[in-house]
Each structure stands twice: as structure tokens, then as C-alpha cells.
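pinned: reference chain
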Amino acid sequence: MTLPALGVLGGTFDPIHFGHLRLAQELADALGLARVRFIPTGTPPHRDAPTVSGTHRLQMVRTAIAGNPLFEADDREIRREGISYTYDTLSELREQLGKRPLCLLMGADAFTTLTTWHRWQELFDLAHVVIAHRPGFRLQELQAALPAPLHKIYLQRLAGAPGRLPANAGAIITREITALDISATRIRALLAQGFSPRYLAPDAVLEYIAHNHLYKDSDAR
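pinned: its C-alpha cells
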């Protein structure tokens, strides 16, 4: 009997917002995931350091997901020294969880950059890759944006029936989700300008940001 899959959603979550949460909820429902584990990045390899500390970002994740039994927070990348690689995180999870299926959740834009990730081809030995895309998005557009090595793997591994997980790793699954044009960059900009980002992130997260004076001055770190 195959155990229900665990979803893995990584990111800086600087801050976490409704786009992250809705993506996780819809993919969990569509794929029958047992849980979605939110894993804030420690030191990301492909982008500038997060604006606020890992401690704050982890606490914002915990605040945002409180009350949803499908969601849980994982602090392993915050605790890890050095650069945070998804390969290392999935390897640790695979060792801990045995044959339970893992699903690495990401947006279409992130998938197009996969060849720049550390040991990217080996990610498929550890997890399924689930690509969330907006309504009306043509998958031909995604294919056209893929570098040749990834395009080949995409065609080889694309699952024929979204929502069905073959084995415990190795498939690429695409899924349409509700389009929420929300970004952490926009939220930070609004806060820096003194405007309200209400309805872009949970009120409890915005209250945490205000209480801790985040995204306004050098004390944010």
C-alpha cells in the first residue's frame, strides 16, 4: 500500500503571502497530499539574501499556517550552515521518510530555471516535481522556455494523468491553480512606502510584521 505523498514547498517566504498558501492548498487537494511542508530557505544559492532573518521568516510561516492541519513548518534550512540546496533537503527527507512519495511544489517560472539548481537531474530520483500554472497558460509556452536538457526530461517524465502519482519519485506533474498576482517584493515595497498590504497576506502575518517593525529599517534583520 502506497502512503499518501508529502508536499514540499520551499522559498524565502520574505514574507509568506496568500499566493504561497493558495498554491499549497490547491495542490494538496488535487494530489491528495498528506501534508505540505513549508521550508523557508536559509542562504539561497540563486538570489540575494532575504530581507529579514530566518527566525522571523520561519515564525511568519508558522503564523500563516496555524490552524490548517494540512500544513507544517520545517526549519532545517534555517538551521543548516552554508548555502541551502534543495537536493540536500530532499535527500534528508527521503532518508527520514523512506518510500513515502515526495512532491516538490513550484511555479512554472521556477521550473524553467531548474538546470541552474544544484544536482538538478538527481532531484527526480528523490521526488516528483509538481508545476503549478495559471489558468489559460498553454503548456507549449512552458516547453518553449525550457533549455534543451530540461525539455527532454520534461517530455520523458510528464505524467499522463495529473493527480495520479506513479511510484515515489520521478514524475513531472502539471496543475492549473487559481491565479493570484501577489509577490513578496510588492508587499515589501508597500510596507517600505507606508502603504497597507492588507488582503495580500494573512492579517496575523501583517500583525507580526508590524509588531516587529520588519521591512521598514535596518532593525528588520
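why pinned: The radius of gyration is 17 Å. The chain has one domain: 6-181.
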